[in-house]
Amino acid sequence: MTEDQDAKTLAATPAALDSPTMAGTPPSAAGSGPLPTVGLSMAASVVMHSEQAARARAFFALTAGMTLVAAAFMPFVPGPPLLRALAMSLCGTVVIIGIVVVRMLKNESRYTARLATLLGVVFGITGELALFYFGLFTAAAMVLPLGVYFFGLSESPRAATTTYIVGAVFYATLSVGVVTGILPDLGPMPISHLPAAWRWFFVVMTQVVFVTTFFLARSSRRATQAAIARVERATRQIQQRDALLVEARGELDRAQRPGEGRYTGETLAGYTLGEVVGRGGMGEVYRAENLETGALAAVKLLHPMILSDADQVKRFVREAEIAEKVASPFVARVLQAGLSPSGLPYVAMELLLGHDLAWHLRKSTRLPLGRVAELVEHAAKALVAIREAGIVHRDLKPHNLVLHEGDPRVWKVLDFGVSRYEAAGSTMTHGALVGTPSYMAPEQVRLESVDHRTDLYALANVIYRALTGKPAFVGDDIAGVLYNVVHTPPPQPGAIVRLPADVELVLAIAMAKAPADRFQKAEELAEAFRLAAKGDLDPKTRERGRRMVAKYPWSAAELRAAG
Questions:
Q1: What pTM does this model have?
Q2: Catalytic (active-site) positions
């Protein structure tokens, strides 16, 4: 639901429809850091993998054919019989490997990064040993750059690098052995008669050719991925524009009937979809009624155009999965999730009757201390449940706190769109800046590890906003806000609005820059705020708050409210 909506009913969706949350934004958005790497959709990745498997079949088939030609000359070329027999057996091994791989890769799913690495190492060592008989510095060596280029195109950077290093080092060992006389030069064009400078030139230039070929292959791989990504983006934009054009008339018609959506009146998973109670860029949220029980729910459906964005679909599904793991009356409940008959993901959640904190703050600027104390108590209990489920919310803010006007009246936390599992580090935004800038903790901005204390910092920012009517951190742009979050303290709350001194001390602890200086659990923050609101803060916490004020002094505020 957008900030300008004034509906009485708020759907507890697992993702804010038009919430100003930064998700998947690279550090460069904050003013520094590298550009994001090229990412491909699942479909493009499957295509690239299929192409790699097909190329592998062709490469090993051709290599087996070339090796057979080389082996056919073995009986006619001179050389020690024992070494000739060994070389022929190595050629046979290469042929067998090629045949086996070609047959195996008829099933493309068998071609994995581990298999590519294994084949590269085995094939490289075996081929170079066979090449030793023909001469390391003869025309036969021209086949090696082909192998370097092929394995350099591997979809796994680790497989490509491993096979290149093993092959290059093994060949360097053999060639240096020949140049120094440790190993015999068996080829028809030995270089032992050449000056030492020429011999070492051949050794070095061969490695230069290898490394150049390898980097050419990796560059080609990246260029292909980038080209596919550009085509995907262009295709997605065209699809979205087409979808918008097709639906434009329907949207105009629905504008005349604000309560209706494209699926109003339809039945989905045992629910009859009624009026739209939320609409945004990702989808629509419907008031729904259970056909069997008559119970009301909120059902969110993604826009059809979003289906072309695999990351958005994954995020939507993941939100529901995470929300289902948190059992608390202070967290919006997920009732069920799945796919509609047309293939659109949906989530059915409890219907919240009321408004989010952002709406309340737009109406009255700030909340009385007693109402903020109630908010802190309920939000803290939600964060306890979230912590016990092993989850870090990472985006607690006024838009994600809803006052449910039910029986009883309760504040509820929603939107797990950028949450992560604390222990496993599971996230779709690894290495990316996620959250809402004004409510981020310093460790989020620095892309360090986050935990329960990160959510407590966000809650402290929410408290600050609700009490003072102003955000703790502002700036001319996002980069400015993020800089202030990390490096500058917020204005003193008591210089903006009259507050009990104990409340300021609690905020000083809760908003400390270092996680170790903050409250370590939501229960501690809630209890300290409850006592501070009554002026009964215990001496130990009061002294701790004074130490935090000394360590992180408040910045000066320009205005002081009258009351």
A1: 0.56
A2: 395
